[in-house]
Amino acid sequence: MMSDKPSNPDRVQPPQVADQPAAAAQTAACEAANWGDFVQRCDNCRNCDLGSSRTNCVVWRGALPAPLMLVGEGPGAQEDLEGKPFVGQSGQLLDLLLQANGLTEQQLHVCNIVKCRPPGNRQPSEEEAQACRPLFREQFLFVRPKVILLLGATAYRYFTGRRDGITKVRGQWIENNGYFIMPTLHPAYVLRDNRQRDKIWADVCAVRLKLEALGLLEPLQFVPAMPQGRKKESN
Ligand code: SF4
To answer: Is the separation of the CB atoms in 230 and 191 below 8 Å?
Structure first.
């Protein structure tokens, strides 16, 4: 059933502003209010047909702002139910690869090209991506990433406007206006063909190294090893 209310109130929680000098705290509080307003506008958006079939508008998870932004194509069934991106099997694999590289939700922001689930998990259309673009652009300005990881061919096409095959361009940096953009395979593709795992792993490693080279993360104190499972084992 369609709902205007976020199922996860966490989604609009402002960033922490405690323990900051007064001026910085005021700026952060102002940004937090603006972010809450932004998420509310996403929740109320009906700018394309996807707005009428969604359960939840799926805006983000992770940190705000963040040096790394991960962009997928659109929410799937689980994401639609929970109101958060990449929380299904693909998200579990993605988190496994990120965490093995020392990357946590405190350092990254996860979102999609379109914020509402395309029925039947189809790809979002050109028109739907276009309709959602102003919200995506606004979100990008809030996040202020330096490095962007594009997950899959659709995210690559709608983010860059290019139509090369993802297997051809993955693993190659695109530098644009001071941003570093890495296209990679969608984790769902790797779940279907585990022989591709070393490729997405190599791309996540390259992203980690780029963040370190830019001085945005401290160097890792261990050599990351590619995890073999599909999700992080619980203790
Ligand atoms: S997909 Fe984007 S443009 Fe379409 S209804 Fe959802 S938030 Fe609005």
So the answer is: yes
